[in-house]
Amino acid sequence: MPRINTHYQKLRAGYLFPEIGKRVRAFASAHPEARIIRLGIGDVVLPLPRPIVEAMKAGAEEMASAETFRGYGPEQGYEFLLEAIAENYRSQGAEVAADEIFVSDGSKCDTANLQEIFALDNVVALTDPVYPVYVDTNVMAGRTGEADEGGRYANLVYLPTTAENGFDPPLPAKPVDIIYLCSPNNPTGAVMSRVSLERWVAYARKEGAVILFDAAYEAFIREPGLLHSIFEIPGAREVAIEFRSFSKTAGFTGTRCAFTVIPKEVYGRDASGAPIPLRALWNRRHTTKFNGVSYPVQKAAAAVFSPEGSAAVQANIDYYMENARIIRAGLAVAGYRVYGGVNAPYIWLRVPAGMTSWDFFDRLLGEAHVVGTPGSGFGSCGEGYFRLSAFGLRENIQEAIERIRTKMKI
Ligand code: MLT
């Protein structure tokens, strides 16, 4: 019998969302009459916009003819998509070249896999609460020790981001090599200000650290003046890698397409201290382990940037952000303290005093038949908080809020 990777045995419980799914299925089978409204996992519900589907169909049609059929494509993505992405960055005030972009099947996979190009003895910093993928994949790789009682792993540096510090990640108290930041944030819904991003870029430049910046929710930013990309900060190209996704932006959770940007100026060092471009390492990893996203899907993704595609995508984002507004307003009327939901599709609320996040999950499911995500599932600083997703049909959002208002008023 082969020996297993024992680092997996350090992992706490199941991955958050399957665990929630298991509990919801148990409740549903015990209460078949309950009409459950799911605002847990952030999964889109609106269909793909028509211009995007038409582009996907045209791409599929090309595969049906000998003249236009395509086999393996470039692992990094087709030029037409890379150029469209680079142009979109330029329109946002960030300089990104097409050959710095790596198209993939998802930011979950990219944020999970990118740690492979770094040595195991790097010190990793991440916020608490945090998207669990960053933590779990570093545990699996063996970059951490065991978890303590509160679920925190030894060797990771946790940066508490709570209402007390305005959900603005504080700089680490000790030197770190790799920093995961997510803005707009999953789960808190907070957005890092320009000042905060500047402070982080300055820190990374001074300490020789790399920032892994997850911008999967940038399209949900509404307020003017907020940055969509870390590359809008001068000097960030030397210290940052950015992840973006079509999943939430354009309804691709089931279609799968995302990308990672690694500027040519960002380096790590080898055992002798010599600088090595991270872009070259990721290119090596990507071309070895990945064969590219399918042609019709890349055609669909490129249509997101066309005038019709981007208008349709914007209409869907507006719909979800109106949901977020309804959730925020309804919860406030019901007596809850709410955060997020203004520039992000997640609403982060304080659970009633004396309850844990999982107590609230059970009560919300049991009394209102509404599913959300317990804040403690995102880290110990998430205890006492709860996340609701704005990705739902309007009538379900309205009904969920009505049920919370009438059954769970505080
Ligand atoms: C979430 O609900 O946090 C997201 O849907 C998870 C993901 O994007 O992988």
Could you characterize the architecture of this molecule?
The protein is an alpha/beta fold and about 400 residues long. It is about 35% helix and about 15% strand. The model has no long low-confidence stretch (mean pLDDT about 95). The strands form 4 sheets. A 7-stranded mixed beta sheet has the order 2-8-7-6-5-3-4, sandwiched between helices. Helix 6 links the parallel strand 5 and strand 6 (about 210-215). The N and C termini lie far apart (about 55 Å). It is globular and about 55 Å long. Bound molecules: D-malate. The site of D-malate has 5 residues, from loops.
Radius of gyration: 21 Å
In oligomeric terms, what are we looking at? single chain
Runs with pLDDT <50, length 5+? none
Q: Termini distance? A: 56 Å
Protein structure class = alpha/beta
Overall geometry? globular
Percentage of residues in strands: 5-15%
Q: Output the helix-strand order.
A: HEHHEHEHEEHEEHEEEHHHEEHEEEH
Question: Which ligands, by name, code or SMILES, are bound?
Answer: D-malate
Number of helices: 12
The main pleated sheet reads as: 7 strands, mixed
Mean pLDDT across the residues is 97
